[in-house]
Design goal:
CATH superfamily of the largest domain: Type I PLP-dependent aspartate aminotransferase-like (Major domain)
Domain Aminotransferase class I/classII large: 10-368
Order of helices and strands: EHHEHEHEEEHEHEEEHHHHEHEEEH
Oligomer: single chain
Largest sheet: 7 strands, mixed
Number of strands: 14
CATH architecture of the largest domain: 3-Layer(aba) Sandwich
GO molecular function: 2-aminoadipate transaminase activity; pyridoxal phosphate binding
Low-confidence stretches: 1-6
Protein name: Putative transcriptional regulator, GntR family
Organism: Deinococcus proteolyticus (strain ATCC 35074 / DSM 20540 / JCM 6276 / NBRC 101906 / NCIMB 13154 / VKM Ac-1939 / CCM 2703 / MRP)
Keywords: Aminotransferase, Transferase
Mean pLDDT: 94
Number of helices: 12
Strand order of the largest sheet: 2-10-9-8-7-3-4
CATH class of the largest domain: Alpha Beta
Shape: globular
Structural class: alpha/beta
Length: 378
């Protein structure tokens, strides 16, 4: 049976940006729940501290210190509702309506919406093979005088690009020169399958111009909605005056307390190592499948981490026109224009290797190749 004749009910979705349920750590949270409730302390059922669960902040500081390779003090961590929750606080507190925020020209599609919901003017900045084009960025900074520059520095969503250490330090130098904050979305920083990423932006928070956002959504479980903001203490002391935190207390105390138990029991490192092996194998399966003749005039970057492959389609092929054709072959993806503030990159698609297993990935890419061949035939 060829891919084209498979029932549509067997659709392979290469657009989903999260792992399938089977990969989520059910047994880990069984143990964590038992551990937490066995403490006999109901504090985690309260509103909680505005800074977040104290136990989690202590455990998180130790975890990040080990994985980042430098000290991350508990006093520089504020618990957030994932990356989106952290970005929402940053936009609310550090930028007034009407201010400019610069983002990479392709970026996580929800981030510009969060910024615009706070009345910010979102300005796209071009990327090159190394990430943000700093010469172009400086010209935009001089013109717009932004409060925030938002970047996904490691295993970028959707392009997969990772900034070099030199480029990170040059961006921070621009922030100090022009008085803006670098907001680093480091959601994929710990998911390395090839060469490790350069040091996290957390290494630079001491200058006061860097805010590093992290989350357990991609390294443990999306449903937790637990993340963190790492910034200099005085910056956090201002962020924590956010009205929502002052009214409702700490972010997601129950979820945060469960993550604290996961870390305290030593379950996190084992799980993280396992999913890195799994995602690395899946990434390799996707890359190998994309070597097929059907993709000879496509272009993509081999991922060293993260979740995605950013594929440029054959010349003159448009992703939104390919998408319905691909669905008739039983495969779907995310078209590139949804990741662009200005709706560009219509000739690109984002493929995720985190959700499907290796056999599904191979089959999905084969179906995609057939759809591309069909589009060529007209």
């Amino acid at each position: 049976m060829t891919s084209a004749t498979l029932p549509k009910t067997q659709m392979i979705n290469l657009g989903l940006g999260y792992p399938a349920d089977a990969l989520l750590p059910h047994s880990v949270f069984e143990q964590a729940s038992q551990h937490r409730f066995a403490q006999g302390d109901a504090y985690f059922l309260q509103y909680g501290d505005e800074w977040g669960d104290p136990s989690l902040r202590a455990q998180l500081a130790d975890f990040l210190t080990r994985h980042y390779g430098f000290a991350v003090p508990q006093e520089e961590l504020l618990i957030s509702g994932g990356i989106s929750g952290g970005l929402d606080i940053v936009c609310n507190m550090l930028a007034q309506p009407g201010a400019a925020a610069i983002v990479e020209d392709t970026t996580y599609f929800a981030s510009p919406d969060i910024m615009q919901s706070h009345g910010l003017t979102v300005v796209p900045a071009p990327l090159d093979s190394g990430g943000l084009d700093l010469a172009a960025l400086e010209a935009l900074v001089q013109r717009w005088q932004p409060r925030l520059v938002y970047t996904i520095p490691s295993h970028h969503n959707p392009t997969g690009v990772t900034q070099s250490q030199g480029r990170r330090e040059a961006l921070i130098a621009l922030a100090e020169r022009y008085d803006f904050y670098v907001v680093a979305d480091e959601v994929y920083h710990l998911l390395n399958y090839g060469f490790p990423a350069p040091p996290s932006y957390s290494a630079y928070v001491g200058g006061g111009r860097v805010i590093s956002l992290g989350t357990f959504s991609k390294i443990l479980a999306p449903g937790l909605r637990v993340g963190w903001i790492h910034a200099r203490r005085d910056v956090l002391e201002f962020l924590v005056t956010n009205p929502t935190l002052q009214s409702a207390g700490g972010t997601n105390p129950i979820g945060a307390s469960l993550v604290s138990s996961v870390l305290e029991l030593g379950l996190m490192d084992q799980y993280l190592g396992g999913i890195m092996d799994t995602f690395g194998s899946r990434a390799a399966a996707m890359v190998q499948s994309l070597q097929a003749p059907a993709f000879a005039d496509c272009e993509f970057r081999v991922p060293n981490g993260g979740y995605f492959v950013w594929l440029r389609l054959p010349p003159d092929m448009v992703a939104e026109q390919l998408e319905p054709r691909a669905q008739t072959y039983g495969v779907t993806f995310k078209p590139g224009n949804i990741f662009s503030v200005e709706g560009r990159y219509t000739d690109h698609i984002r493929l995720c290797f985190a959700f499907n297993d290796e056999d599904q990935i191979r089959e999905g890419i084969a179906r995609l190749g057939e759809a591309i061949a069909s589009m060529r035939r007209g």
